[in-house]
Amino acid sequence: QVELVESGGGLVQAGGSLRLSCAASGRTFSTYVMGWFRQAPGKEREFVAAIRWSVGSTFYADSVKGRFTISRDNAKNTVYLQMDSLKPEDSAVYYCAGGSDSSYNFWGQGTQVTVSS
Fold it and tell me: What sections of the chain are H helices per DSSP?
């Protein structure tokens, strides 16, 4: 089992920045890729960004490309999501997830991000 705990959410004005953290514990070797997803009220959960633990390859949704940066600290088993130039439409609950390229098997509890206009 892998436990994922997110932190760093909050309220920020449009144009501001936040950094989310996701600390992984347990059988972390069973996760090959870590991702961030988000879900706004009344909307489907959507992919935001992902990173492969070993080689550090990164992937982004078009909506955040150039504004968000995903990174990892292997020694701390922690993944980060640096969010810059935030927009009101970025407001959502952000979830950290871990798994393989084909499926995410482990999910965190989520952290709220609210961007005011």
Answer: none
| Model pLDDT for residues 70-92, shown as the tens digit of each residue | 999 989 999 999 999 999 999 99
Let me know: does 8 contact 21? Beta carbons within 8 Å. Answer: yes
How far apart CA 19 and CA 95 sit, in angstroms, is 13
Q: Which H helix or E strand runs over 25? A: strand 18-26
The 10s digit of each residue's pLDDT in 37-74 is 999 999 999 999 999 988 889 999 999 999 999 999 98
3-class DSSP assignment, residue 29 = helix
Give the C-alpha separation, 115 to 112, whole Å: 10
Neighbour count for residue 80 (Cβ, 10 Å): 20
